[in-house]
């Protein structure tokens, strides 16, 4: 069975036999006919109670929209607060980033991906993180207005998102186990490089040169943008499988969380790249 590069999707709770569990609506060890991913690798219907509605694409769109709306409003508030008091930038970036990471880890390993409160709390935390980080990226740039750069990054992010959605829906690139392994491997690679650059920055100016705005940094950001873009294909495929398997309606919150994580990463990389090109 294919798995997403996004840990929120990849670590969905599983039943015996390798199928995905029903988010608490069925007991472990249920028959293969009710598991997600039967012996032929095809998604099978979830066991749902009489009051449980199956997830639809409308649920995914609605809940993702709500999550992004909360994130956007919080990011605007964060940016305005930091613009009035730049001293808040570092606390918002560090605090928001750590809280967001903690919530993702809790949702992933605690199997709470479908918890609405956790998803919206993540949106608030990342909103403070993104608002402050956007200020930090754009404040040193004098030749282009901060709002212009941020708008370009937002348009670029959603342009990539919808572009990859078209690629997925038309089947121009098919999601296969080999593609999944390649994307996951590439993702692990950039994470290791980013952590190595962070550690190296404590001992030498600019670290490994992956975030200093030079040619290597530009190439690294382009690679990250490419990996984030291809990660959408795996996320779309995983969401599609959940819908075909008639997952409970609340599972859409987990899909919204996974897509938001990828969108946040993509936005940060695009804004960072734009700051490289516009920073004198």
Descriptive key words:
globular, 280 residues
Short description:
By secondary structure, the protein is mainly alpha-helical.
Describe, in plain words, how this protein is organized in 3D.
The relative contact order is 0.18. This protein is 66% helix and 0% strand. It contains eight helices and no strands. The protein is globular, with a radius of gyration of 20 Å. Helix 3 (89-109) runs antiparallel to helix 4 (116-138) and helix 5 crosses helix 8. The protein has one domain. Mean pLDDT is 83; it is low at 10-44. The longest helix is centred in the C-terminal third of the chain and has 30 residues, at 215-244. It has 280 residues and is mostly helical.
Termini Cα gap: 48 Å
Order of helices and strands: HHHHHHHH
| Gyration radius from CA atoms, angstroms | 20 Å
The average pLDDT value, as a whole number, equals: 83
How many DSSP-defined strands? 0
Report strand %.
under 5%
- How many individual domains? 1
**Segments where pLDDT lies below 50 for 5+ residues?**
10-44
Q: In terms of structural class, how would the helical and strand content be classed?
A: mainly alpha
Instruction: Give the biggest beta sheet.
Output: none
Proportion of residues in helical segments: 55-70%
């Amino acid at each position: 069975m294919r798995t997403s590069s996004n840990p929120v999707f990849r670590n969905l709770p599983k039943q015996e036999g390798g199928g995905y569990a029903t988010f608490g609506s069925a007991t472990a060890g249920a028959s293969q006919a009710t598991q997600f991913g039967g012996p032929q690798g095809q998604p099978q219907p979830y066991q749902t109670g009489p009051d449980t509605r199956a997830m639809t694409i409308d649920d995914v769109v609605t809940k993702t929209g709500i999550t992004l709306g909360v994130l956007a409003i919080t990011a605007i508030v964060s940016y305005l607060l930091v613009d009035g008091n730049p001293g808040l930038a570092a606390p918002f970036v560090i605090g928001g980033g750590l809280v967001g990471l903690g919530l993702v880890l809790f949702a992933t390993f605690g199997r709470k991906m479908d918890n609405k409160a956790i998803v919206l709390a993540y949106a608030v935390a990342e909103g403070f993180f993104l608002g402050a980080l956007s200020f930090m990226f754009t404040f040193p740039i004098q030749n282009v207005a901060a709002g212009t750069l941020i708008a370009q990054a937002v348009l670029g992010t959603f342009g990539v998102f919808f572009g990859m959605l078209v690629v997925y829906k038309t089947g121009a690139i098919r999601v296969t186990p080999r593609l999944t392994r390649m994307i996951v491997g590439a993702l692990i690679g950039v994470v290791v490089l980013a952590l190595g650059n962070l550690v190296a920055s404590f001992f030498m100016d600019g670290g490994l040169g992956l975030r200093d705005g030079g040619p290597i940094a530009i190439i690294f950001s382009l690679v990250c943008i490419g990996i984030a873009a291809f990660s959408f294909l795996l996320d779309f495929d995983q969401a599609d499988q959940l819908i075909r398997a008639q997952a409970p309606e609340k599972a859409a919150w987990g899909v919204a969380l996974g897509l938001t994580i990828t969108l946040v990463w993509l936005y940060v990389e695009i804004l960072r790249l734009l700051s490289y090109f516009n920073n004198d």
